[in-house]
Amino acid sequence: MTTIILFGGRSDERHVSVASAQNIVRALDRPSNPANQQPSNLTWFWAPNGAVVDVHSDELLAHTEPFTNDFQPSRPAIWPDLEMALDTLPVDDPVFLLALHGGEGEDGTVQRMMEARGIRFTGSGSDASAAAFDKGRAKAIVKDLVRIAESRVVEDASGLDGAVAAMLQRYEKIVLKPLAGGSSRGLFFVDRATHLGAIITAICKLNVPYIVEQFISGRELTVGVVDGDDGPFALPVIEIETDPGFSFDYEGKYLGKGAREICPARIPDVMRDEAQAMALAAHVTLRCEGYSRSDLIAAGDGAFFLELNTLPGLTASSLVPQELHEAGIDFRDFLKRQIALARR
Questions:
Q1: How many whole angstroms separate alpha carbon 293 and alpha carbon 120?
Q2: pTM above threshold 0.85
Q3: Which residues are registered as beta bridge partners of 120?
Q4: What are the residue ranges of helices labelled H in 207-285?
């Protein structure tokens, strides 16, 4: 019963994906009993050009500084694209453990490919993945159950000036971020004194829809949710602390610049309970499977839901693994549980 760890992809989050795959391989290649044989796993790298390479786990683990360095496998690609790889599987009835983040790996595209072929995979299905990946759509789905910040969706940079001006009439500070995506890339904070020229130029280069959102001042919290035998349950809450002048962007998350993650969050019990209930409600309402992670802001008058990730990072320093550790759940056991859920 082979597990295929699929990582990489064509999104700007592929570096995080490589680091997640490294952490997964380390856990799964660790025998639960020294007398046992190594588990039967394959490790597939989905290259930025779309090709799929069967890589040796030792080569993956030898790759250094994955958050900044591109992974360059020594073996040639076996398949020119992922669809051909799925159509010509080298093993019978595998489970794909998805270590993908962002883009086609998280927006339902890969999930839809596998569903069409009857291939098992970890994480949420295509419909839930697509709904959660679109921040505007996700907020519309959960708004009757959780409190959300006011926002507007801008399809291209030409409409950004007007949307920003309208929101700044109502709020002193707002947040601009890609409508779909993660790892806090392309994140901008704007107030009434901000000159938008450089920001709009940067957004034009990204050429993706944006969400213009009310800035909520408060404590940044994140909560993982895991499906268990008796249904989904919330993990311990993490608080993100940032130094003045910094935000929890890519460098803050993965390079440790100006941000700290406090697990468990040192917050009142009532705030913890509200955050966990909100993450659980979002997971269920968006029909997520396996696991998810919700990001929230705890303001003075209660918490606001920001977004949900269906395939959050699983690197050694990522938030969900930290929460699993705090909850007393072994990372290997968590992965085995996800594989078992996919098979079932």
A1: 22
A2: yes
A3: 95
A4: 250-254, 269-285
